[in-house]
């Protein structure tokens, strides 16, 4: 008997969705930072055992879109609400803001199992955790609830066995040796963008998109040329930094992570170009992969 299905991970920004995906996969497929809107695309992580295949889907966090890019990000979320066999709804127990009414309404109407993962429980006391569990039982009565810490790997070992019990009998959807649906260049782009998110403040990280134009695997070494697009000339100067020191730091940090990911030496060249107001331009967004 072989089980296979789609498990979609949903939640608000900074709930810990990408950290959970990486934890479940045992691989760093999704970039992780403390900044909201780190995840922009829908990413599939394909987990395989001999009699099991789980296609995990990580999407951008649910938000109220303010411009074109965020509207496209929300399209990925809406798409993910239609094609799952099981939902993992991850919530941040430390988040004092109101939960997403949009998600609660949608999840209550979805005719598939829902597992609510109350994340970051290592940061609260027992009383606050019990209050959160009671509140989420009230909000989504049909859901099962599991307190976890994705970062600390607390209780996450119970997730895969639970999913295995919930998934339908199906043949694999993907080849058993396939780890994700994304090409190599996607992970190069995301790794560079992660380093920008970690090293720059204010609006800079959100004004950046990365495109890898050259990816040549020569066996022992991979040669990469990537372009960092910004919206204004002033941002270009900030990304490059004094005597190129800032962009050199980004390149070094990205290279080290990519060498771990690909298991090969990496030679990377970074360039910075201005594409004015690309986040609001439908043509630019489409060219960057936001359908």
What is the arithmetic mean of pLDDT? 92
Q: Which value, in Å, is the CA radius of gyration?
A: 20 Å
The number of strands is: 9
CATH topology descriptor of the largest domain: Rossmann fold
Q: What is the overall silhouette?
A: globular
Q: Identify the CATH class of the largest domain.
A: Alpha Beta
Overall structural domain count: 2
Strand arrangement, major sheet: 2-3-1-4-5-6
**Helix residue percentage:** 25-40%
The helix-and-strand class reads alpha/beta
In the CATH hierarchy, what is the architecture of the largest domain at level 2? 3-Layer(aba) Sandwich
The N- to C-terminal Cα distance equals: 37 Å
- Give me the CATH superfamily of the largest domain: P-loop containing nucleotide triphosphate hydrolases
Q: H/E series, N to C?
A: EHEEHEHEHEHHEEHHEH
Percent in strands: 15-25%
- Contiguous helical run count: 9
- Largest sheet composition: 6 strands, mixed
Uncertain segments: none
Task: Please provide a written account of the structure.
This protein is an alpha/beta fold. It has 2 domains: 3-166, Rossmann fold; 184-287, GMP Synthetase, Chain A, domain 3 (2-Layer Sandwich), CATH 3.30.300. 35% of the residues lie in helices and 23% in strands. It is built from 9 helices and 9 strands. It has helices at 17-25, 68-80, 101-109, 126-139, 159-166, 184-199, 233-240, 245-262, 282-287, and strands at residues 3-10, 43-49, 52-58, 86-92, 114-119, 144-147, 209-217, 221-230, 265-274. Strands 2-3-1-4-5-6 form a 6-stranded mixed beta sheet, with helices on both faces. A hairpin with a 2-residue loop joins strand 2 (43-49) and strand 3 (52-58). The model has no long low-confidence stretch (mean pLDDT 92).
